[in-house]
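Technical annex, item 7. During the second reporting period the consortium partners agreed on a shared format for inverse folding records so that results from different sites could be compared directly. Each record opens with the tokenized structure and is followed by the designed sequence. A conforming record, contributed by the partner at site C, is shown below for reference.
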């Protein structure tokens, strides 16, 4: 038994020491397979896993869930930061317009004052004949109308400034709350990692070595995901391909969970739903919604097996909870709109077989339904 373990560990070490491109399809899939093999070997090392080993696994799951929460918060903060910048710009422009209009009104009042207040009734009564009366009447009407328009514009701009300022304050409060949650989760993560390391120190030498390999694979997989997210958010992926968008799951149009906030009741499932869920049988074709290039294929505990496609201009689509071993395209492959890229499944955290579909524009999630309907 010991000889078999040493042989497997030696093989794993040799494989993990090879320098492979982080985005190669076989790298992510290969890492996951090796991680699964290591987990199977854990079972052989000890038919009945020790209580400590189970605690290590449970802590690993909690750490992964909290890291997923941090990813969600970071994405939300990026979106809020963009909204705040746009609001500030809009607010500055409105204030500038308001100041100009206010100055124009003050100048007009000063001129009217210097010339003496105009008595509109006197102007009309002093008209020389009916034609002069009509001419003066329309002239005065135009002046009054322009004064009214100016005052209305100033009032509208004043209201807009007040509304924009209120929105800005609310979004800044939201940022503050999310950053507080971020700090709280970071503290929890630090404690959990410390507990996990403490528990690992109590494992047998065989279990320690295998757990070390599993942790290494987890980190490599996370790094691959970080790299993919970085590319997705960079916006430096060439021009947007454009074209007619197609529905990602031809077998079904039934949306079981829409985009946005939700109460899942499923442990580990995010309540900030970043995409839409389409109910469909396992093994249904999942197609690229536009022409593009496969950016990423991989697996994690929450998403299951998933694939990302880059459509240029910072637009990336993501398809998750797919079947194991069902990828029909590899990283770097060019795909066409409507081309099958993977099969739907029931992997990761979910309530049953379905396809989860996301759209990211420069790293920020948008409503897929709205985006699909846009030209």
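Designed sequence (site C submission):
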């Amino acid at each position: 038994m010991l000889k078999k373990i040493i042989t497997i560990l030696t093989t794993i070490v040799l494989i993990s020491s090879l320098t492979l491109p982080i985005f190669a399809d076989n790298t992510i899939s290969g890492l996951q397979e090796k991680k699964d093999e290591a987990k199977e070997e854990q079972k052989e090392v000890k038919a009945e896993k020790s209580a400590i080993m189970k605690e290590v696994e449970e802590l690993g799951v909690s750490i992964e869930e909290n890291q997923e929460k941090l990813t969600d918060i970071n994405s939300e903060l990026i979106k809020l930061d963009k909204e705040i910048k746009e609001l500030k710009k809009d607010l500055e422009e409105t204030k500038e317009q308001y100041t100009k209009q206010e100055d124009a009104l003050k100048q007009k009042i000063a001129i009217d004052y210097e010339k003496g207040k105009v008595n509109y009734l006197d102007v009309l009564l002093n008209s020389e004949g009916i034609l002069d009366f009509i001419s003066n009447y329309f002239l005065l009407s135009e002046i009054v109308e322009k004064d009214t328009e100016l005052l209305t514009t100033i009032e509208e701009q004043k209201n807009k400034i007040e509304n924009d300022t209120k929105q800005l304050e609310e979004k800044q409060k939201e940022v503050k709350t999310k950053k507080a949650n971020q700090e709280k989760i970071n503290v929890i993560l630090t404690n959990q990692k410390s507990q996990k390391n403490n528990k690992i120190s109590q494992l047998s030498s065989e279990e320690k070595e295998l757990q070390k390999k599993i942790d290494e694979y987890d980190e490599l997989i996370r790094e691959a995901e970080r790299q993919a997210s970085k590319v997705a958010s960079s916006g430096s992926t060439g021009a947007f391909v454009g074209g007619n968008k197609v529905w990602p799951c031809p077998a079904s149009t039934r949306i079981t969970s829409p985009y946005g906030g939700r109460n899942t009741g499923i442990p580990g499932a995010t309540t900030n739903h970043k995409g839409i869920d389409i109910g469909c049988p396992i093994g249904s074709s999942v197609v690229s919604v536009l022409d593009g290039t496969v950016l990423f294929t991989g697996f994690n505990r929450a998403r299951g097996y998933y694939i990302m496609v880059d459509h240029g201009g910072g637009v990336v689509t993501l398809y998750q909870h797919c079947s194991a071993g069902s990828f029909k395209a590899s990283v770097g492959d060019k795909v066409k709109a409507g081309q099958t890229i993977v099969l739907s499944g029931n992997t990761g955290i979910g309530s049953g077989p379905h396809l989860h579909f996301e759209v990211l524009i420069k790293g920020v999630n948008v409503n897929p339904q709205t985006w699909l309907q846009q030209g």
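The chain is about 60% helix and 15% strand. Residues 1-27, 262-271 have pLDDT under 50 and may be disordered. All partners now use this format for quarterly exchanges.
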